[in-house]
């Protein structure tokens, strides 16, 4: 349910960026930040399941896993964390495949963020402007310089950037809580989805959605 709401809200944020509506984006980013706080807190409930209780039904899950959450993968793609290899868990014809494929091939929230930044005087290099949108977001020093200048000259936009950072931190917090949940419940066992489990999940633990906002913080 939360992933569905986040998808809806970030579609709106993407539209707001595309149409230069920073204040509408601010209102929505406040909501998604709050959703992340609730999601992080709710892990407490699942953590009341002991390893032995979980093991009593784990076999019945067979290969069912979080990997089958098309909405989570859609959300990652919409946010610009494009991992096309994850489509293999959703073969053509399965529910969600079409939606995930579409999200993979459409511009992300970060692409729309570039569109928003440009009229505010931030240079968006050609390699970003005409990039292959199926590729994940990469940090860019030219964009970072532009954002840094906006931080220093436009305190109103600082509010927007800080809310984006709040969400980004919230998503990483959720990943951390999910990893600890997995670790305390199944330890170093492989996941039912076939991955290495904790070791696999750790790879995206510190992955930022908005890398340019994190890269400049020591200069603020
Ligand atoms: C005891 C409870 C849980 C265990 C043991 C567990 C375990 C795992 C493992 C091992 C993976 C890696 C994929 C695999 O090989 O299966 C995974 C992925 C995932 N789980 Fe869980 N999980 C639990 C609860 C939850 C809950 C409550 C959520 C709900 C929101 C969730 C959402 C996900 C998602 C979205 C992924 C994909 C993450 C990614 O690809 O980065 N899991 N889980």
Weakly predicted, low-confidence segments: none
Radius of gyration: 19 Å
Give the end-to-end Cα distance, rounded to a whole number of Å. 37 Å
Estimated helix fraction: 55-70%
Q: What is the number of helical segments per DSSP (H or I, 4+ residues)? A: 11
User: How much of the sequence is in beta strands?
Assistant: under 5%
Report the oligomer. single chain
Largest sheet: none
SSE series: HHHHHHHHHHH
What hetero molecules are bound to the protein chains?
protoporphyrin IX containing FE
What is the β-strand count? 0
Structural commentary:
By secondary structure, this protein is mostly helical. The protein has helices spanning 2-18, 22-46, 51-61, 70-79, 97-105, 109-117, 126-129, 141-153, 155-186, 198-202, 211-215. The two termini are 37 Å apart. The mean pLDDT is 96. The site of protoporphyrin IX containing FE has 22 residues, from helix 9 and helix 10.
Provide tags for this entry.
220 residues; 11 helices; binds protoporphyrin IX containing FE
SSE blueprint and pairings:
Blueprint: H1 2-18, H2 22-46, H3 51-61, H4 70-79, H5 97-105, H6 109-117, H7 126-129, H8 141-153, H9 155-186, H10 198-202, H11 211-215
Helix pairs in contact: 1-2, 1-4, 1-6, 2-9, 4-5, 8-9
The structure holds protoporphyrin IX containing FE (HEM).
């Amino acid at each position: 349910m939360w992933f569905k709401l986040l998808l809806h809200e970030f579609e709106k944020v993407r539209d707001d960026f595309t149409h230069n509506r920073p204040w509408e984006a601010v209102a929505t980013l406040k909501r998604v930040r709050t959703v992340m706080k609730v999601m992080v807190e709710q892990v407490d409930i699942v953590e009341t399941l002991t390893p032995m209780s979980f093991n009593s039904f784990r076999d019945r899950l067979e290969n069912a896993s979080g990997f089958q959450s098309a909405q989570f993968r859609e959300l990652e793609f919409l946010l610009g964390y494009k991992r096309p290899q994850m489509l293999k868990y959703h073969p053509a014809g399965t529910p969600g495949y079409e939606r995930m494929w579409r999200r993979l091939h459409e511009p992300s929230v970060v692409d729309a963020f570039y569109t928003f930044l440009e009229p505010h005087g931030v240079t968006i290099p050609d390699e970003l402007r005409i990039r292959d949108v199926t590729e994940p977001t990469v940090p860019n020093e030219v964009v970072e310089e532009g954002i840094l200048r906006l931080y220093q000259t436009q305190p109103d936009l600082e509010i927007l950037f800080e809310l984006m950072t709040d969400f980004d931190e919230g998503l990483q917090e959720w990943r951390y809580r999910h990893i600890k949940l997995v670790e305390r419940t199944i330890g170093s066992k492989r996941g039912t989805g076939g991955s290495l489990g904790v070791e696999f999940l750790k790879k995206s633990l510190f992955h930022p959605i908005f890398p340019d906002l994190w890269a400049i913080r020591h200069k603020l």
